[in-house]
TrEMBL record:
Protein name stated in the entry: DUF6505 family protein
Amino acid sequence: MALKLPRTIRLDPSDTFVYARAAEPGEWAVTGTFLFFGIDPETLAGKERQAFRAGFLGIDSFGWSTLAVVTEASAEERAAAVERLAKQLVAHCGAPDLQAARPAAEEEIAFAQSLCDHPPNTLLALHRAGEQSGIRESFRTLHQKVGRLDTATAFRIIEVDDEEDGPAEELDIRTLAGKR
């Protein structure tokens, strides 16, 4: 069985607007819920509230991503992700040293790995809610509907025979830019 981990993905620029710090596309990701322990979710507002509600944490930038994508990984990449997260826990979360941070980082990466029991390229979304007993997480997967979309493309190029449709229309962008 192949090893799989979530990576951040950005399908549009919205993460750069809704989060104080957006994760870069392609970072290994964890849920990041540990950053909200001890915080009353009702006190969060704006971009912090959005990160609480729906953000995956990119472990390189410590920024947020609305979606993650299931990605195959090697054992070496997984080990490097644990090490990178451990360093971030020391730098951002008050872990006293790497030796103390590694078990927590390992636990977070293991949980993230458990979310990836899906085919590669499956999108993952998360929703957090504050409850009396603590923080509740729920996850859902988003799958491409076969036949409706081409693989990860926003546009499809189709060839048009100009002879059938009449002369081709030309567009001069420089001229349009001057006409404001």
